[in-house]
Each structure stands twice: as C-alpha cells, then as structure tokens.
Amino acid sequence: MNTQTEPSSIAAIDLGSNSFHLLIGRFISGHFQILGKEKIRVQLAQGLGEDFSLDEASIERGLEALKQINERLKDISADDVRIVATYTLRKAKNAREFLRQARRFLPCPIEVISGSEEARLIYQGVAHTQPGKEQRLVIDIGGGSTECIIGQGFSPLRLNSLEMGCVTLAEKYFAEQELTTKRFKKAEMAAAQQIDPIATQYQRVGWKQVFGCSGTIKAVAYCLEQLGFTGGEITADGLAALKKTLCEDSQVSNDRFEQIAPERARVLPSGLAILIALFDTLKIDSMMLSEAALREGLVYEMEERMRHHDIRERTAVSLVERYHVDQAQAARVQSTAVALYQAVKAPWLLAGKKLKPLLNWAALLHEVGISIHFKGFQRHGAYILANTALPGFNAEEQQLVAAMVLHHRKRLVTELPALTLFEDQDQVRLIMLLRIATLLHLHRSEDQPVFEPTAEDDKLTLCFDHQWLCAHPLLEERLIKEVKEWARVDMQLAISTNDDNSR
Q1: Is the pLDDT assigned to residue 485 strictly greater than 50?
Q2: Handedness of CA 49, 51, 57, 62 (dihedral sign)
Q3: Where does the pLDDT of residue 308 fall: very low under 50, low under 70, confident under 90, or very high at 90 and above?
Q4: In what order do the strands lie in the sheet with 155-162?
Q5: Are strands 209-213 and 286-290 parallel, antiparallel or unpaired?
Q6: What stretch of H or E contains 247?
Q7: What phi-psi label fits residue 228: left (phi over 0), alpha (psi between -120 and 50 degrees) or beta?
Q8: Which of 185, 196, 369 is nearest to 269 (CA)?
Q9: Percent of the chain surpassing pLDDT 70
Q10: pLDDT one-digit tens code per residue, 222-262
Q11: How confident is residue 6, by pLDDT bands cut at 50, 70 and 90?
C-alpha cells in the first residue's frame, strides 16, 4: 500500500492590465509540474480614465474573469493560492472597490504589488526556468507597464517598472486601426522618453543574455517566425521588417498572422513600438523568448515560503543592517511582541490571518528611523518603510508595517491606511501590541519584564509581578498613561499586579 502523501496543488494568479493569468501546479522533488493554465483577456487598462478611475465596464469584465478563475480553485487550499494585481490596480483610484467586490468569491485577498516587486517576481520566474550564471537582461511588456531587470543567478541587480504598456500606448497612438510609419514613430519616441532615464545605468551594468517574456513579446516572436525570421531570436532587423509589413498592410492582417487574436491585434503595434524603442535605446542586439514570467515567479516564491525561506525576512534584516538598528533592543521587543500575540490571537480571532510575521518585522524595524534623528524617529521610520522598495512585501503589507512603526510611540494618531487585505480592527490591535512591547522595554536593558497577559474581546490585561513593577516606577507611570491611549481607539488596557486589583 502506498502511503506517500500527494504533493499539494498551488495556484498563482496574475491580474495584469491586459490579461488575467492562472497557473496551477505542484512541486515534486523541487520541480514544478504544471497541472493547468487559464488566460482571460480583460484589457483592464483600457478602462482607466484620465482621472485614474476604472470604468464600470472594465470592473465588470474583471469580476467576470475572476469568477471564471475561481471555478478552478475550489479544490485548492486558500493558503496555497496567491493572487497579485499589477499596474492598473496600482493606479486606479477606485481599486479598493474592485478588490472588495472580488473578495466575495475568491478564496484569498488580492495583493496589489509595487512596480519594483512586479519586476522582481518576473525576474524570479525567468531565473528559475532559464539556468545560467551570466548576467541577463529581462524585459516584460505588459498592458500598463514595462519591466526591465538586470540580474545574475537568482539575484536582481537593477530593476525598474516603466509606466508604458501595450494597452495604454494603443489607446493614445493607435486608436485608429490604420497603421502608419508616422504613428509608429510617435509611439516609439514616447516609449524612448520613458526608457532614456535608465539607459546609461543599464548599459554600464551590462548583460550577456536578453530574455523577453509575456504575451506581447510572444506575439512578436510568432509574427517574426511567420515572416521567415527563424532561429528563435528577436532581432532589430526582424522588428524593423515586422513594422514595415504592418504599415504596408495598414493593419495586423488575419491572413498573414492567423494565430493573432483580434484583442491581441489591437495592442500588437503599440507593443512592437515599445520593443523597438527598447532595442534602440538600450542597444540590444538580440532577445530570446522566455515562457516564464510573473506567475512562475509567484509559484517559486510560494515554494520558498513553504520551506521557510521568506524573502521578506531577508529584506527586514538588510534594513536593520543598513540603518544600524540596535539589534539587541529589536530582539527584546520582538520577543515580547510575539509573546503578546500568542496570548491574544485566540480571543481576538487573529489566528490564521498571517499577521504575526508583520508584527514581528515591525518590532524588528521599529527603531529604523533613529538613524535620521531621535526626535520623531517613529515618523522617520514610517517614511523609510513606506517609501523604500521592500522585496517580498506587497503594497498593503508595506503600508501596514509602516503604520505600526508610525503609531508605536507617543500620542496615538487614529487615522489608518485604507487597506483591503487587513481589517481596520486587526490593524489597530497589532499597533497596540507593538506599543506595549516597546513600552515594556523602555529601559533598554536585559532585565525582562515579569508579567502575564490575558485577553478578551477588545481588552488586554497585563498582570505584573508586584515587586518587579514597584522597581520600575517610570514604566508604571507610562503604562497608566497608555491606558488612556487605548481608550481613544475603543480598546481597554488593564494593569494589575499579583497582589492587587486591576487599575
């Protein structure tokens, strides 16, 4: 009888500006075995108005696509699903409404990731599927943004997300179906303006290989093959020939390129213009096609987290080193914060919400702003955390960690970031736990606080050893003041000792 446990299936969903992609598979002996794929062309970026609001039609298309994707997720644990959104939902003013509606029928929340995080994940997808030790340039042309990354092995050396994509440029330069050299030239110049600020830096770092990934570059590669450019490489000569052909036909001809769907045909010219500008501005000789992209990067990162190799931990530790954080003090606060979390997670219904690691990293980084100035260091720290690229953290995780650091001391400011991944109540509770953890280590000594925490509803009771508390009168005074801060957010903090009543 075979009692070996079957590997769990995992799912990665990429909500791009042009298409939504689903990838389902499982890891067997370190190898990712694909079990299913879905691609639904939504062209979400097409509905992004000049005021950066998504129109109702685009929202409906997106929600309908998610309902279809959700059908494939029914037998997969929510913990084994990760859904990320990119450019359009980064930019849309009403993205939160879309995310709330989508949450009703998805097994887990949608993470909106930053441009740099999107670039990092794209690189990871290519790096895991294209072995090689030489430096490489990876390019992904999406619907709303274009990612450029130079890396070596599994480490990105330079990464940028440029605000230009095949959908957004199509709306501006190719709204009319007839293709002309003049329209191409305008689109190429606009793309070159976006690329130019990074060109010198990228050429200085250099690369030995160039890989292109995702739908636009795959479509271009197919068209070049149809024109007789075989060998699997995309070259500047091939791109010029394709542009000439499209202008001669005045369209993306179905007769000539029969596998190009109408939806892709509408954005192919703008994607080609971006690719030509990239070749010209970055002085690219040739490009190979990679089948992997963002969603593959997601699944490999999920595997890393399953093996407890979380990139977010490395990010936090690197910030500690960069800003010369007092690691002994950070470790003390971390230990107490985690102990408090363990005491309250059941009565406060925090278990299973993936909040503990974020509290842990906020505790580790709560003094990151001291390197700027002690006065108001919580504000300096929050600014650093909110405005620094934090590999592995999605946009809302980054905002929550920054909010915890901002509110961990002094008078509590009750305004919180508007998040969809985390409930307001949970944000407040994490902040209050970090406040207590930092307060209990006010003296910055190895003298550990002697107390027992208990919780119920919105109340936390700290019962101290009487002699220990009497030996720390300043801390006792601060704790009494903290009781009032808790009341400002409709929470109750009670202080007692083992031989008296609660205060």
Answers
A1: yes
A2: positive
A3: low
A4: 155-162, 146-152, 136-141, 209-213, 286-290, 233-235
A5: parallel
A6: helix 236-249
A7: left
A8: 185
A9: 97
A10: 999 999 987 779 999 999 999 999 999 998 888 888 888 88
A11: low
What is the token pair recorded at 427? 């944000």
Structure tokens at 189: 């110049």
| pLDDT confidence of residue 5 | 59
Q: Chain-centre distance of CA 471, in angstroms?
A: 46
Structural domains in the chain, sorted by start: 10-113 (3.30.420.40), 116-296 (3.30.420.150), 310-447 (1.10.3210.10)
> What is the spatial distance between Cα 89 and Cα 112, in angstroms, rounded to a whole number?
7
| pTM, to two decimals | 0.82
- Name 321's Cβ contacts closer than 8 Å, sequence gap at least 6: none
Encoded amino acid at 378, one letter: Q
Strand, helix or coil at 223?
helix
How far apart are the C-alpha atoms of 154 and 120, rounded to whole Å?
Answer: 10
CB 430 within 8 A of CB 404: yes
E-state strands within 269-348: 286-290
d(CA 237, CA 369): 52
**Confidence (pLDDT) at 500:** 62
Cα-Cα-Cα-Cα dihedral sign, residues 268, 272, 273, 275: positive
Angstrom distances, CA of residue 349 to CA of 66, 335, 343, 455, 470: 28, 21, 11, 11, 33
Residues 416 and 382 sit within 8 Å (Cβ to Cβ): no
Look up residue 294 and give its amino acid: L
Give the DSSP H or E segment for 454: strand 451-456
Give the angle 328-331-336 at the CA atoms, nearest 5°. 130
CA angle (268 as vertex; 262, 272 as ends), nearest 5: 170
**Residue 277: strand, helix, or coil:** helix
Nearest to 402 by CA among 387, 412, 391: 387
Q: What's the pLDDT tens digit per position in 316-369?
A: 999 999 999 999 999 999 999 999 999 999 999 997 778 999 999 999 999 999
Taking the mean position of all CA atoms in its chain, how far away is CA 183?
A: 34
β-pairing, 209-213 with 233-235?
A: unpaired
- Model confidence over 430-448: pLDDT tens digits? 999 999 999 999 888 888 8
Task: Give the model's pLDDT for residue 20.
Answer: 95
* Residue 2 binned pLDDT confidence (cut-offs 50, 70, 90): very low
